[in-house]
Design a protein that fits this description.
about 10% strand, alpha+beta
């Protein structure tokens, strides 16, 4: 009498529900940092820019933000990301009725958790398909629910297209393995081929780097078909052709509205016509390989010869395409640029935290500590386990293990170069680790099998460290002068951005890309996206770095190194940058060699006069402090109390009023004004000059005595001290903004 399968299914369902609940919890433990009384605080600049595009789509539906005037100010630029992720989230929010921006922000902040948890649930079914065991699938789901490489990209508030790449990897693995198993030319086979082509093309539309999936599939397909009978081999080749055909059409459609295409760009790092061209060439190669050439060679009986001719036709097309591409300068330069991006040869990528190698990092972690947090203590074993899985897949002619092994080796390999790939690599790594553990487990658990499973679970302990820290963090009151964790910097940055939005003149173009903003902000590059979305002001440079063009990025770096005020002002005028947002950066630290730099003098000394190497540097006359954020002092740095400046400061670049007057020839003239910042910190702006031989002097003053809320408040009038005595002068706001001359008398 057959036994019922319902108890087994019920246990699987209960276990999967528990693992999914664990995934939701690990990705939402720090939601109190994201959902603040003042609004939603998204993690990182990329999340802010995704929300910028989603907000634009909600406001201007059915249009999406292709060209953004808030990027690369003052020219504007198209975003380097494909629009699929943002358009999809916008559509879901509209269907759900979350069109009001405040509500849309709250819903969008949960999108990473939903997609990340869905990936955890889906990997259990894919593990069952590829590895043939619910136990392996559930173990893979448990591992993925806590692996740092996936958790850190799918936590609440980190709205980024990378969270969808895990699902893209799963779809490629699952549908690809199903495609390799097809032995009959029926409607189901061609439907699976179309689905696989959609998965490949859709992955590239999510992120152009997913072209790697297409590259990985080429050897997998050949390894799969080389030992098949001729009829099955031809079917496999034709199904590959059909899949690439669907992917080519999908990419061509996705590229049709890309502003990068309008600029004539052919690049691998952004979505352009180069992706459909490459995939189209692969489609043609598979088409040639799938042709039945047996009639051209009468009497041939060798299947090996037929396979050789197929491979020869496939290779001939690719060699021809490679030769044409090598002689075409844009394609050649795109390959060089893509390799430079991966190898971090460019200045910008070398400075991005995500571009750091997995094991060798300069963020203070010990050797391998970051890798263990991303992939557990088994991180170093991943390549060995993947190679073993590859051997098993080849020997058993198992498409599932074959696909999984190659994807694990490739994605984990690129993660060794750049940790940003950890989100995608986590999916095949979890399956590979589950396969290694599941292979030792019999149908009935024994003592050794239980010990092995316990060892796997214990090996995940490093992954729990960041989760535990997030769960146990205590967030102090916003009015406190100290914060307990360094990742609370976003709270202060968002507060600064909101202040800018409320207290500086509004710029056009936020919801209408056809307009050009009146002015922009100069800042360090990694502040750009937050300021563009939350402050609703364009920036000269942002988190896209030099990918939008090298001039803005290089000039922004130059601005942070300039020591002459006149040169800094000229650069701001060239970019129509009215405000400067400062913070401590590698270029503006309080090191002795940096003290002469304009931005260092602004952030650390408020633009006041300072003495450097026994030389008195004058106060900066073209910048006035209008806002300073709270200070951030970490609990492990109590000695910094009283020394740490505000986390962020905002300065306005102004022409300044020109005070003129008379004094005895060649005598010193001093001008001073007492100020109080928005944090009730008192300071005195002082400038000095010498009267000329005719007894005339002029002093440029950036502060007005008749102030509004959007700048430091003046306490009294400007006091001008000469050898003849002291006089008080009123400086109107209009005089400061328009550069008027005021006679001091």
């Amino acid at each position: 009498m057959p036994t019922s399968r319902w108890p087994h299914r019920a246990l699987v369902a209960i276990a999967l529900a528990a693992i999914t609940a664990l995934a939701v919890w690990t990705r939402s433990v720090d939601r109190s940092v994201v959902f603040r009384p003042a609004g939603v605080v998204f993690y990182g600049g990329d999340a802010s820019y995704h929300m910028r595009r989603i907000a634009y789509g909600l406001e201007r539906f059915p249009r999406h933000l292709a060209f953004d005037p808030y990027l690369h100010h003052p020219e504007g630029a198209p975003a380097i990301w494909p629009p699929l992720f943002d358009v999809a989230v916008t559509g879901v929010l509209r269907i759900a009725g979350a069109t009001a921006l405040e509500r849309a922000e709250h819903w969008a902040a949960w999108v990473p958790v939903v997609l990340g948890s869905a990936t955890v649930t889906a990997i259990a079914f894919v593990g069952r398909q590829l590895l043939g065991s619910w136990l392996a699938g559930l173990l893979a789901a448990f591992l993925l629910s806590i692996l740092g490489g996936h958790v850190r990209y799918s936590r609440v508030g980190l709205l980024d297209h990378h969270v969808a790449l895990g699902l893209a990897v799963l779809a490629t693995l699952s549908i690809g393995a199903a495609l390799l198993r097809r032995q009959r030319s029926d409607a189901r086979s061609w439907l699976i081929a179309a689905g696989f082509g959609t998965a490949l093309g859709g992955s590239i539309l999510l992120w152009p780097g997913c072209l790697l999936f297409m590259a990985l599939w080429q050897p997998i397909q050949w390894l799969s078909v080389q030992t098949r009978p001729p009829d099955e081999r031809r079917l496999g080749l034709r199904l590959a052709f059909g899949a690439h055909l669907v992917a080519t059409v999908l990419l061509a459609f996705g590229c049709s509205g890309s502003p990068w295409v309008e600029r004539g760009e052919l690049t691998l790092t952004t979505l352009s016509w180069l992706q459909p061209i490459i995939v189209g060439a692969l489609m043609l190669a598979w088409g040639v390989a799938s042709m039945d050439l047996r009639k051209a060679v009468p009497g041939e009986k060798s299947a090996a010869s037929s396979l050789f001719r197929s491979l020869l036709g496939y290779g001939a097309v690719l060699i021809l395409f490679s030769g044409v591409a090598a002689t075409f300068a844009p394609m050649r330069s795109s390959v060089t640029a893509a390799w430079g991006w991966l190898a971090k040869d460019e200045t910008f990528q070398a400075s991005v935290a995500e571009s750091k190698p997995l094991f060798f990092r300069d963020d203070g972690l010990g050797f391998g500590a970051f890798a263990h947090e991303m992939f557990s203590w088994a991180a170093s074993l991943v390549p060995i386990l993947a190679i073993a899985l590859l051997i098993v897949g080849i020997r058993r002619r198992d498409p599932g293990r074959l696909v999984l092994a190659i994807f694990t080796l490739a994605l984990f390999g690129v993660t060794l170069l750049q940790a940003r790939f950890a989100d995608m690599a986590s999916v095949p790594v979890a399956l590979t680790l589950a396969s290694a553990a599941g292979a030792t487990v019999a149908r009935r658990f024994g003592r050794w099998q239980i010990a092995w499973m316990a060892a796997v679970i214990v090996g995940t302990w490093p992954c729990w460290t960041p989760i535990r820290e997030q769960a146990s963090r205590s967030i102090e009151d916003q009015g406190s002068p100290r914060l307990s964790a360094s990742d609370l910097y976003p709270l202060v940055l968002y507060g600064t951005a909101r202040w800018i939005r409320e207290n500086t003149p509004e710029t056009v173009g936020f919801f209408d890309a056809s307009e050009r903003p009146e002015y922009g902000l100069m800042c360090w590059w990694d502040l750009g996206h937050v300021l563009q979305y939350t402050a609703r002001r364009p920036t000269v440079v942002d988190n896209f770095g030099d990918d939008l063009g090298g001039d803005n990025f290089e000039d922004a770096l130059l601005f942070h190194r300039l020591e002459e005020e006149a040169a800094a002002e000229a650069l701001l005028d060239r970019y129509r940058a009215r405000y400067v947002v400062t913070r401590i950066t590698p270029e503006t630290s309080r090191r002795a060699e940096h003290l002469r730099r304009v931005v260092t003098r602004l952030h650390h000394f408020d633009g006041l006069g300072i003495a450097v190497d026994e030389v008195r540097l004058p106060a900066l006359a073209g910048f006035r402090l209008i806002y300073e954020s709270r200070r951030i002092v970490l609990e492990n740095q109590p000695e910094q109390v009283g020394r740490t400046p505000a986390a962020y400061k905002v300065f306005e670049h102004v022409p300044g009023a020109i005070l003129t007057g008379s004094a005895p020839p060649d005598t010193r003239v001093q001008c001073g004004l007492r100020l109080t910042t928005n944090r009730n910190r008192a300071l005195t702006w002082i400038a000095e000059t010498l009267a000329d031989a005719n007894g005339h002097y002029s002093i440029r003053v950036p502060y007005a005595t008749e102030t509004d809320a959007a700048q430091a408040r003046a306490s009294g009038l400007v006091e001008v001290r000469t050898a003849n005595g002291t006089i008080s002068v009123a400086v109107p706001e209009a005089a400061v903004r328009e550069g008027r001359t005021i006679e001091a008398r």
